[in-house]
Write a structure and sequence with these properties.
- The complex is a heterodimer of chains A (365) and B (240).
- Chain A is of the alpha/beta class.
- Chain A is built from 15 helices and 16 strands.
- In chain A, the strands form 4 sheets. Chain A has a 6-stranded mixed sheet with strand order 6-7-8-3-9-10, with helices on both faces. Chain A has a 4-stranded antiparallel sheet with strand order 2-1-4-5, with helices on one face. In chain A, strands 11-12-13 form a 3-stranded mixed sheet, with no helix packed on it.
- In chain A, strand 4 and strand 5 form a beta hairpin.
- With 240 residues, chain B is mostly helical.
- Chain B has 10 helices and no strands.
- The radius of gyration of chain B is 21 Å and the shape is elongated.
- The two termini of chain B are 15 Å apart.
- Classes of the chains: A alpha/beta (365), B mainly alpha (240).
- At the A-B interface, helix 2 and helix 4 of A face helix 7 and helix 8 of B.
Chain lengths: 365, 240
């Protein structure tokens, strides 16, 4: 049974329909993205789930119970809530912000604070450094991370996110998405995400629900949505660069090839006569971090210029963009401690794009 | 705290001490009015007058703060219709000069300290109510949405989010109210109340300018000192 079931939901504001007879199931442990042009009803759809908006018609079941049988406050405390402008409480510290829901639920202060520290670490902020800060002392990206930590504080099974990464610059957005994917893989919450950014939906979601004027146009996996748009509207929405978008879903870690490497000062082996050896070798320091490159037969030296490197969580689309930007044909892939775990060449991107089309009905890669 | 602020505060406090001290005040008034034999108002000591005035102004402000805060909060809870009514009534009432309010209070409340206290209190409600409402309204919609979405009840939202964020504006309203009251309380002497209005009234009646200066100067110094004190409080609240 699905965790959430919308049945025949309608809502109108005056003469305008916000939602028209919506049926929608959201499965446990999956990330569903509601996407569509503004005014398509996606936010209304989300806000009905924590009863910030009540439907005019139809009913929603949550965990087998009708939503109306819950007290709104109790319901909301059991659902994480993240909004575009974060809405951190400006008079409270980061720690106090994160502890909001546990404190409402009566969790002892010390326990809530311990949990807050864990969450700060989870979203990639050093607790010792950030715990006591005020929201005005945070950058947009940091504030949004705190917002996510606050939503997770009481360990709710369901997370509602309304344009969570919409207010930060594209670079930050990519990092936040990457961090969020990592977290979601760890905690496996049911997530309902509202976004107008198709790239974001393709990258993060298990299921995409495309909405238009209060109705659902297509509900499908990202791969299916990109490969088999249900109608012209979906095709237009998806755009001509579908194959490029598909790349946003593939992380470098999952497709990186083994990177040939030598230690500093070592000579890279020359290719045997008549054989195709690697075109270049990475030069690693003692900790396995890349510090230079060497051609076959040359000694490994420090690179005078920055190397083309990306983290394993970055997508093929980012790798391609980086290649086009700087004219590199190979990019090194790093793990979380910045050690080289592989490399990706432009040919690999082309072949994984072809694979993605074939396995279009499959899950996340 | 900036050195300039401290200096300003110290100056105001020193001036207050100077003005409350009979010998030093006599000295100043003799210097300003060399022709006058007894330039100091004789019926009460400067300290006594200052004390009466302060009690009157602060008492009235306490009434104003309590009622204004309640009214502002109530209007905030009750929504648009009451809010615009309150603010409209507030704006209208602010156009009535405080002197007129005192004059109107006499037939209703009679002469004396109590009636002046209440009249000042009622007049001082408006800035507090205005400040409270403005403060509560200025809370960012995102914070309010987050508070609702995280499951705060209406009262929890008020207590934990809206009120702490509105406090600096409430304090600003109270400061305005106190300053108005310090000034207006001087007129209270005409309605039989004590305070720094007594030397002023006596001076006007007896053509003794030194009495008038004594009262007016003390009231001005008191207002400056209170203003310094309350704006410090306000900033401390804003810093949270």
């Amino acid at each position: 049974m699905a965790l959430i079931e919308y049945r025949g939901i309608s809502k109108r504001y005056g003469d305008a329909w916000a939602l028209k007879n919506i049926d929608l199931d959201i499965e446990r442990g999956t990330l569903t993205a509601l996407i569509g042009p503004s005014g398509s009803g996606k936010t209304t759809c989300l806000r009905m789930l924590n009863r910030l908006v009540e439907p005019d018609e139809g009913s929603i079941r949550y965990d087998g119970r009708t939503l109306r049988s819950f007290k709104p406050e109790a319901l909301r405390r059991g659902m994480g809530y993240v909004i575009q402008n974060v809405g951190l409480f400006p008079h409270l510290t980061v720690l106090e912000n994160i502890c909001t829901v546990p404190r409402l639920l009566g969790t002892p202060k010390a326990r809530a604070a311990r949990r807050a520290d864990e969450l700060l670490a989870l979203v990639g902020l050093d607790p010792a450094l950030y715990r006591g800060r005020r929201p005005r002392e945070l950058s947009g990206g940091e504030a949004q991370r705190v917002g996510v930590a606050r939503a997770l504080a009481a360990d709710p099974p369901l997370l509602l996110m309304d344009e969570p990464f919409g207010a930060v610059d594209p670079l930050q957005r990519g990092r936040l998405q990457e961090a969020f994917l990592r977290i979601q893989r760890e905690i496996k919450k049911t997530v309902l995400l509202v976004t107008h950014d198709l790239d974001e939906a393709v990258r993060l979601a298990d299921t995409i629900v495309l909405m238009r004027a209060g109705t659902i146009v297509q509900r499908a996996s990202p791969a299916t949505l990109l490969a088999e748009p249900a109608d012209d509207f979906v095709r237009d929405f998806v755009g001509e660069d579908r194959s490029l978008k598909r790349l946003a879903r593939v992380s470098l870690g999952s497709v990186a090839a083994t990177a040939p490497a030598v230690a500093l000062g070592e000579t890279a082996p020359a290719a045997a006569e008549g054989c195709d050896g690697p075109a270049q070798y990475w030069v690693l320091d003692g900790a396995g971090k890349p510090i230079g490159r060497a051609r076959p037969g040359q000694r490994g030296t420090l690179s005078p210029t920055p190397l083309p490197l990306l983290s394993a969580g970055a997508s093929l689309k980012e790798a391609l963009a980086a290649m086009l930007e700087d004219g590199h044909s190979v990019i090194g892939v790093l793990d979380e401690s910045e050690r080289l775990i592989g490399e990706i060449a432009i040919g690999d991107i082309i072949s994984s794009s072809a694979d993605a089309v074939e396995s279009s009905s499959g899950g996340r890669q | 705290m900036k050195a300039k602020d401290v200096l300003g505060g110290l100056t105001a406090l020193m001036a207050l001490v100077f003005i409350a001290d009979a010998p030093s005040l006599t000295l100043l008034l003799s210097f300003l009015f060399p022709g006058q034999a007894a330039p100091l108002y004789p019926l009460a000591s400067p300290l006594e007058l200052l004390g009466q005035h302060l009690a009157l102004a602060l008492g009235a402000s306490a009434i104003a703060a309590a009622l204004g805060f309640l009214g502002g909060s109530l209007a905030h809870f009750r929504g648009e219709s009451l809010k615009s009514l309150m603010l409209g009534a507030g704006a209208l009432a602010q156009t009535i000069p405080p002197v007129a309010v005192l004059a109107l209070a006499v037939p209703l409340l009679g002469f004396g300290n109590t009636s002046v206290l209440f009249a000042l209190g009622l007049y001082g409600i408006l800035p507090v109510m205005h400040g409270t409402l403005a403060g509560l309204e200025s809370v960012s919609p995102d914070a309010v949405d987050a508070a609702r979405g995280l499951g705060m009840s209406r009262m929890e939202r008020f207590r934990l989010v809206e009120l702490p964020l509105a406090l600096p504006a409430v304090a600003a309203g109270i400061r305005t109210s106190v300053l108005i009251n310090v000034g207006t309380a001087a007129i209270g002497a005409a309605m039989g109340a004590g305070g720094l209005g007594r030397p002023i009234m006596a001076g006007l009646v007896q053509f003794k300018t030194s009495y008038v200066v004594q009262g007016a100067l003390a009231a001005a110094v008191l207002a400056l000192a209170l203003d310094w004190l309350l704006s410090r409080l306000e900033r401390a609240l804003a810093r949270g």
